[in-house]
Amino acid sequence: MTTLLRPPGPRTSILRWTAGWFLNRHKPDAHLLRSLMRLAERYGDVARFRLGLREVYFVNHPDLVRDVLVTQHRKFLKSRGLEGSRMVLGDGLLTSEGEFHLRHRRLIQPAFHPGRMPGYARVMVERTAAMGARWRDGAEVDAHQEMMELTVGIAGETLFGAEVGSEAAEIGRALTDLIRLFPLTFLPFYKLFLRLPLPVRRRYEESRRRLDASIYRMIGERRKRDADRGDLLSILLAARDGGGGTGSPGKGLSDVEVRDEAMTLFLAGHETTANALAWTWFLLSRNPEVEEKLHQEVDRVLPGRLPGYQDLDRLPYARSVFAESLRLYPPAWVLGRRAAEDTDLGGYFLPRETTVLVSPYVLHRTARFFHDPERFDPGRWTPEAEASRPPYAYIPFGGGPRNCIGESFAWMEGVLVLATLAGAWRLRSEPGREPSIQPIFTLRPLGGLPLVLERRAAR
To answer: Which domains does the chain have, with CATH numbers?
Structure first.
């Protein structure tokens, strides 16, 4: 094994680039995302660099991505970069490992059974239509903030039930406050840093208390009622392992486990989709010919009515628009793994404990797999075009046994929100107003996405 080659890479530590990310916050993408793009362009499919004392292999080929995520997935654990996420999410699906992760995934999977989807779809469309009804022609809105409020409401109702109301927004704000602290977890000795009597520590503790108070209260109230209310929390509380043939109901999730999974699902159910939708509206505002094709499909399929679950297969262009937005701005912009043993990766020697990074952002913008990769082109998503590309050239939801459990939920939400709002509205951006990217936990627009609302003529 040790006779295998070591991949090429820069001699200097990438810490200088990371330091630039923190110090130059007005344009963070210039220091992190562009540095990863340069690594892939200069060193090819696998690049090796040092991040402080840690050695990192950066992988940028679909076949090697498949090896890490699928064919050799047992040789890789979640990277230490997710340790900071445990401060917020605990041991949920995103951060857990091994048998614990497999058990929880098995227990949670029924929440995304096809039979549940029509009910979730109704919530998505109703809340989106209500947002559109509040919009005013000619007003300027922050598309990112609007989509955050929308997806917080959708996630809150589908996860916790309709009675949560404004409390879902409070939970969303607390989660957002915690996400803003996520870059600190990349700093050496961040745990010690968060013990110091600093304002950042007080914000963390206050947000964490607000989250836990709300979630544990709802868990306690639901356990008393013991009824399936059609939401995800009901499923988490009712989940049981098989009784092993003994006639016993099997073991369920503890309150702490339910809390951790609820936080993970809530974060994944609103943060990622909100970012994806916000970038989609921005891209549509800059590509009027794509927007017009979307409007034509919506007008043809939904003449004078709102969409429903039954319309998803009849809106292929809306799905292609959302897919292309996810290609250019994948919310999960980087995936990290850690080698559990010495491994051969594409002919290169990967020592135990080495960190492996895969960046969907970089992979999706690689010209070998996507012609003219910076261009927004939903035509890439015809069945013929998809079949012409390597399967793991496009991974907005990860891949393999640890892919996003809510992928079908996210696709449905993206298509239904687009179809609902595009039936009545256009969103316009001012020329020359270029947004910056903020790559923290997800790929956010730094400073928001200001767009002007324009009501479409009555159909």
So the answer is: 15-455 (1.10.630.10)
